[in-house]
Amino acid sequence: MTAPLRIALAGLGTVGAGVVRLLAENHALVTARAGRPIEVVAVSARNRTKDRGVDLSAFAWEDDMTALATRDDVDVVVELVGGSDGPALTLARTALAGGKQLVTANKAMIAHHGMELAALAEQHGAALKYEAAVAGGIPVIKGLGEGAAANRIDRVFGILNGTCNYILSQMESTGADFGVVLKAAQDLGYAEADPAFDIEGVDAAHKLAILAALAFGTAVDFAALDISGITRIRAADIAQADALGHKIRLVGQAELQADGRLFQRVAPVLVAKSHPLASVDGPTNAVVAEGNHVGRLLFVGRGAGDGPTASAVVADLIDIARGNATPAFGVPVGMLSAAAPADAGHRKARAYMRFVVADRPGVLAEITAAMRDAGVSIESLIQQGRAEEGGPESESVLVAIVSHEGPESAVSAALQLLEGSPSISEPPLVMRLIG
Amino acid sequence: MTAPLRIALAGLGTVGAGVVRLLAENHALVTARAGRPIEVVAVSARNRTKDRGVDLSAFAWEDDMTALATRDDVDVVVELVGGSDGPALTLARTALAGGKQLVTANKAMIAHHGMELAALAEQHGAALKYEAAVAGGIPVIKGLGEGAAANRIDRVFGILNGTCNYILSQMESTGADFGVVLKAAQDLGYAEADPAFDIEGVDAAHKLAILAALAFGTAVDFAALDISGITRIRAADIAQADALGHKIRLVGQAELQADGRLFQRVAPVLVAKSHPLASVDGPTNAVVAEGNHVGRLLFVGRGAGDGPTASAVVADLIDIARGNATPAFGVPVGMLSAAAPADAGHRKARAYMRFVVADRPGVLAEITAAMRDAGVSIESLIQQGRAEEGGPESESVLVAIVSHEGPESAVSAALQLLEGSPSISEPPLVMRLIG
């Protein structure tokens, strides 16, 4: 077992360079723990001449990344290119079909093609490992797939996107509105130049779809996910939530319901301040899993960045070097069951509904009548004073309603009754309360 | 790989019965995840006729527990008897020496004999697994030994004893004193009839010694541990900590210092309310590890009880069934380094010092002079009114001092200056502040 584990790295961005750096810096201990050296043999990236702050001179270079997967001197291909399809997928398929192990940080690819890749891995006796794809450095794929493997897991939920959590935390602490904080986060490198995947909840949804499959033993079903992002949250919503004893967090929630249906949603929610997720601030991620014997497990750590992500990638490599092999989704792909999507309308929750309304008589009566007619019981209602003065909405005010616990379908029905009302100037924002 | 993994269970107390129950209840999913059935073949316990609420009729019975380790039809021995030596140790040695895998929840045995047993396991090609020995259902052995394996870990600390955490939480919420809460906890079954191992910090120390070895790659060194329990904490200390923005928690802290020395301590500490450990209430456990690439990882879950502990035991069994093998302490035993114990006197911290003093003039001057002479800088000092009226201490008052950050040796020196003072009626209680 002293033959080195020979790896090829595709992608030399922040994470790729982080893996090279970690393997150099922790070489002795990684070798000791892995039982043999883990050696980078070959690399590939778009630009050969770019200075990445790490020494690549000892590694072979491939201009065509797919060529990494067919080299005879490579045991494991590490895919850090990103993108659900395109070159990353071609590389992954080629590597696994050739019986090479694949380690990836690519959540989009696993969410969209994880089943196919896992089947390919099984067929060719190769490992498919993706710890870095979910929640950065937190060993949550291992935690669910191995640590909690004795349990029927009924629910898994958590904060899965560091960018959104950073933005929401900043909005909380500065009182600034979404756009201002996003811009500052971009300037600091905490948000991408094109932040859509993060702020619209797609990145968190990729991760949640993967967690759900692993936790419940169900087929990955990204398409069925209900996704809302954080772009419509205003400083006023944060202030309102605070007054109610809550914080706003973008939370991914998955549940295998008692009826066998699969509920999966990524959305901003109001989290009670006493709930463990409420104290998760900044770019941190947190995952909660509830097992039928272990009870509630919580994993917290840094959800992104070169160090944490490289830590997860190299943990996968050490597993492979040790000969540890767990099926990609905990059980053979053929055993993953296809669960029908849940009908969220039956689910019960308290709801926060925020309306931007014209400042004129009768608006509250119209809204509260709709609630009554749809069977939504109001727990509290707050109408705030005029919005930012001088702004385009200076004639509008915010109305925030919190309902008693009731079916989501009733809230939808109430909003439908209000649809088209000339008093309501933009679509209402609805967030559920948890905790 | 469809041959069943055949196990023998030694010990049928809460945890043993919990394992039988879990394997029955989750049989299909455990089989699917393990890749083959996990079957109990034989059991042993002190009393054959006792009703444990689980059906044992299908299992062979051994009066002599050691006989489990020599049965030809057993692959894995699961030791749930407890005790660092005696029958548990004999069983473990016999099983491993015979090449059988050993799974144990026995923290005392691993803290005292883990090195010997790990060496025996290596020698005979058997696995030694003990996830259930530390932090109940939280997969922290896996989290550190595999999930964070790419990192040099510099510090590991946490709340490792659920009984103590329950007692401290109850003291917080009820304002009652230690003895009252302990009695109530015993009545509810949250504390043992003989609670010494828990409340004196020994149980937490066993777990910390194991975590330190795994995290740092150092030899298990339980003997070097500095251990204080929670028996001397009064309601007044909790109230004082609260006024200072802190909670009191029994925390195990281990650090491989920059000088290569190993610091290991279990003691009650004042944790800032904003610190993640402060919100860990009741019988919950929490472990923080700090890695040089991953940053800070936090694992939280239930630290005891049949369900969580059985979950950890069966996770180990699933690992064995899958063929996953990680060295017991992350690296071969021969590579574990012997680190000299740290000299705590050099460590810097803020300290809380509580004195019970006679209510007469000059006491404060005596205490503060000692602090000055020893170079302890006082940040705050509070003298509380008379203690419980009518009680034996009605002539005594409490003085609580918080120092600025400084070396522990200075605090020790100040206390030494005060030793034997007729004004001070019991040994001062010192707790460090963290967070």
What distinguishing features does this structure have?
homodimer; 435 residues; alpha/beta; Rossmann fold; Dihydrodipicolinate Reductase, domain 2; Alpha-Beta Plaits; 3 domains; ten-stranded mixed β-sheet; six-stranded parallel β-sheet; 13 helices; 18 strands; homoserine dehydrogenase activity (chains A, B); threonine biosynthesis (chains A, B); HDH (chains A, B); methionine biosynthesis (chains A, B)
CATH homology group of the largest domain in chain A: Dihydrodipicolinate Reductase, domain 2
Protein chain pair with the most extensive contact, residues per chain: A-B, 60 and 60 residues
What kind of assembly state do the chains in view correspond to?
homodimer
> What proportion of the residues of chain A is helical, as a percent range?
25-40%
Mean pLDDT of chain A: 95
Counting helices, strands and paired strands, the structural category of chain A is alpha/beta
Number of domains of chain A: 3
Task: Please report the first level of CATH classification, the CATH class of the largest domain in chain A.
Answer: Alpha Beta
**CATH-derived topology of the largest domain in chain A:** Dihydrodipicolinate Reductase, domain 2
Low-confidence stretches of chain A: none
Largest sheet of chain A: 10 strands, mixed
**Number of helices, counting only DSSP H or I runs of 4 residues or more of chain A:** 13
CATH architecture annotation name of the largest domain in chain A: 2-Layer Sandwich
Structure summary, number of beta strands of chain A: 18
Rg over C-alpha atoms of chain A, rounded to the nearest angstrom: 24 Å
Shape verdict of chain A: elongated
End-to-end gap of chain A: 49 Å
